[in-house]
């Protein structure tokens, strides 16, 4: 779907009253009005008599799990039969924070029958979603990424809340506030977990003023100090990058997402490495499993981003920030005649050629806010 089609769809949905745009600087009166409008819109949806399932994306990270859990709870508080599910096993960071904060992980559900009612959080791409999603009935999309191919299923009966900010959990926190639904401490922990993970404690470039407001509110409610939150964020990051006992294939897929962009099947992995002297070996290990993963996932092109980190040489800040980011390596693998396209995308957007099939950018690359938009821009350009 090209940009013009997307904006036409969104305009159509806005005019029908099915999309609700939340703003962080609204007055109390405006917020109350928006909350009532939101509840009226939600109540008018075609809920049916069966359970509606709330799901995040495949290979779920903390934000995908936490957004599904917290939004299902909000829907139940508003009187609707909604249950959170996960599509595939969780990563180590999610295991860590769920045990730390004491919340249960939803049961896994790998596919749905045609007509099943779904609420999607943290994604809008069929390649990232549950099997059967294209034949399901999508009631809502709550997302902080650019539009995906599932936006083509938007109708006047679909509620969409898309804000390009740091975390899907921030959007949900805002809806709790606007509807005056109480956020108890258990829900506050779930929302904060997703927010910390996807913004890295508000340090990622996509972090917004609304993310900051949610962070402040949740941290104050839970009576956490800024230092304790920073420590918790570092522990979450360490857990996400703990590759001990994992195969190279498992490492590659630990933070991996599939996309279909302009008819090209693409997969993007995101990894981190903290030992510069062994970076080349790590890159070779990932490259070795890319052909197998491309075949199994039916991908035309695979990109694997590896963010490099060096020990912080500044003794005054080393305790607070033990590592500093030094850039991103991007590995490229292509098949099915897409080798030239993959190379041209990498050369145009992902830095200088470092070694065969590997590009380096001294600026850290973001999969969500940089890589996917650049790939989309290139592939849309080839269609013109």
Notes on the protein architecture:
It is a single chain. Strand 6 and strand 7 (264-273) form a beta hairpin. 41% of the residues are buried. The chain has helices at residues 3-16, 28-43, 62-77, 92-101, 168-179, 185-199, 209-221, 226-240, 248-253, 279-296, 339-349, 367-383, and strands spanning 52-55, 82-85, 117-121, 137-143, 159-162, 256-261, 264-273, 301-311, 323-334, 352-355, 358-361. With 384 residues, the chain is of the alpha/beta class. The longest helix has 18 residues, at 279-296. The protein has a 6-stranded mixed beta sheet. The protein is built from 12 helices and 11 strands. It is globular. Helix content is 42%, strand content 18%. The chain folds into 2 domains: 3-231, Alpha-Beta Complex (inorganic pyrophosphatase (n-terminal core)), CATH 3.90.1640; 248-383, DHHA2 domain (Diaminopimelate Epimerase, Chain A, domain 1, Roll), CATH 3.10.310.20.
Task: Bin the helical content.
Answer: 40-55%
CATH architecture type of the largest domain: Alpha-Beta Complex
**CATH level 3 topology of the largest domain:** inorganic pyrophosphatase (n-terminal core)
Radius of gyration: 21 Å
Number of alpha- plus pi-helical segments: 12
Percent of residues in beta strands: 15-25%
Structure class: alpha/beta
Query: CATH superfamily of the largest domain, please?
Result: inorganic pyrophosphatase (n-terminal core)
CATH C-level class of the largest domain is Alpha Beta
* Total beta-strand segments: 11
Largest beta-sheet details: 6 strands, mixed
């Amino acid at each position: 779907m090209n940009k013009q089609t997307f904006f036409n769809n969104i305009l159509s949905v806005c005019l029908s009253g099915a999309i609700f745009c939340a703003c962080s600087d609204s007055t109390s009166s405006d917020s109350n009005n928006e909350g009532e409008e939101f509840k009226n819109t939600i109540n008018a949806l075609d809920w049916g008599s069966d359970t509606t399932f709330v799901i995040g994306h495949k290979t779920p990270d903390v934000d995908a799990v936490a957004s599904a859990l917290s939004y299902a709870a909000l829907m139940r508080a508003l009187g609707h039969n909604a249950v959170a599910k996960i599509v595939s096993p969780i990563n180590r960071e999610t295991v860590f924070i769920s045990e730390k904060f004491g919340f249960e992980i939803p049961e896994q559900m790998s596919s749905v029958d045609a007509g099943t009612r779904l609420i999607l959080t943290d994604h809008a791409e069929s390649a990232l979603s549950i099997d059967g999603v294209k034949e399901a009935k999508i009631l809502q999309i709550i997302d902080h990424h650019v539009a995906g191919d599932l936006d083509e299923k938007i109708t006047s009966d679909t509620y969409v809340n898309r804000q390009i900010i740091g975390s899907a959990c921030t959007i949900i926190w805002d809806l709790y506030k606007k509807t005056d639904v109480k956020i108890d401490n258990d829900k506050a922990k779930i929302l904060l977990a997703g927010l910390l993970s996807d913004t890295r404690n508000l340090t990622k470039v996509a972090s917004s003023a609304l993310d900051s407001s949610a962070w402040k509110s949740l941290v104050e409610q839970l009576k956490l100090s800024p230092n304790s939150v920073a420590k918790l964020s570092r522990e979450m990051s360490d857990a996400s990058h703990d590759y001990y006992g994992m195969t190279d294939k498992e490492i590659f897929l630990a933070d991996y997402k599939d996309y279909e962009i302009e008819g090209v099947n693409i997969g993007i992995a995101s990894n981190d490495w903290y030992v510069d002297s062994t970076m080349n070996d790590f890159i070779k290990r990932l490259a070795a499993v890319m052909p197998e993963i491309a075949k199994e996932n039916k991908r035309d092109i695979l990109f694997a981003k590896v963010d490099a980190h060096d020990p912080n040489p500044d003794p005054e800040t080393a305790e607070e920030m033990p590592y500093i980011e030094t850039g991103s390596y991007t590995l490229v693998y292509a098949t099915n005649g897409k080798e030239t396209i993959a190379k041209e995308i990498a050369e145009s957007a992902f830095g200088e050629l470092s070694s065969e099939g590997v590009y380096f950018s001294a600026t850290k690359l973001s999969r969500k806010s940089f890589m996917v938009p650049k790939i989309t821009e290139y592939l849309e350009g080839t269609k013109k």
